[in-house]
Design a protein that fits this description.
By secondary structure, the protein is α/β, with parallel strands linked by helices. The protein contains five helices and 28 strands. It is 14% helix and 29% strand. Helix 1 crosses helix 5.
Length: 390
Amino acid sequence: MKARKLLLTIILLLYISLFALTINIPEDYSTIQEGIDAANEGDIILVASGTYVENINFGGKNITVTSTNGAEETIIDGTNETEYASVVKFVNGETSAAVLDGFTITNGLNQYGSGIYCEAYSSPTLSNLIICNNEAYYGEGGGIYCNYYSSPTLENIIIKDNIAAVGGAGLYAEYYSNPILNNILIVNNSVGGMKKSANRYLYGGGIYCMSNSSLTLENVTFYGNHSFYGGAIYCGYGSDAELKNCILWNDDPDEIGTPTLVNATYSDIQGGFDGSGNINADPLFVDAENGDFSLEESSPCIGTGENGADMGFSYSTAEIIYGDVNGDGNVSSYDAALTLQYSAGLISDWTEEQITAGDVNGDENISSYDAALILQYSAGLIDEFPVEGK
């Protein structure tokens, strides 16, 4: 058994050394952008807690940029004294293998897409982010902007307190862009920026989609968003949105500005909305006024989603997926690399959930053997971890 464990560890080390380099910020480079510039396809950029005042561009690289301690402790501040700029850009055809995970994205100021800007067939994976206090001073997409066949996947994200002059203060999608949103909180975003024009219509405080774009939303909560048309959502010019297990409440002047272009099921929509399983009842947030959108125990949204699921955003993804130590819902070689680093003492401060997910052999210890097992699982060599058979 010891020989087998040693062999698996050697294979893992060879795999990581050949196919993925881990770059630590600020140990290896002082800025995230310097790390990106030095990275190659498949590399991992691991960012320590702190505030990084910079504007970053993935430059077409399918790499993972992730924090060690999550969004609340790791901030990318896009304040730029010399030019208008988005905080993060994906504009060179990045795929879903380009991952941004575990940051607060804030203080972007640009014409369009001030928080995160996706364009030209760029469809990254965005997870575990807080996107707040960004402003599109002239156009659309204060928080996130998707244009020209750009279809990012968003999971476990809070989009709040962003501003756009024309539309989509939270998120804007156009020209055949089809973002997928899962477990997202979109609150207190407002259309009408510092250079808004009196003769320009203002659409979609939370989300605005147009020009043949289609959005898919599951477990998304909208609250307190404002626009002239469609406080939560507005679709136009051949676009549409599919909603499931969502909550739309207290948006101004209404929830959905274009009802015929939105299909909603198993959702709580203020004012009512036709669709299977939809309700119109106060969702009973714990303390919406102070930013807590958890559901009270007596909430009508608990257990009334599709197949008995809860409606709306959840702060905690309670289910533990063994091997998924970075919490993105997948088990990959990146999880194996993180587990190996943790076992060697190169990274620390894992949460209890990460430790549980990483201990795949069930011996109450994180070791290189766990990392090797995770790598085997990600490669399809095994279909179950030892801990799952106990």
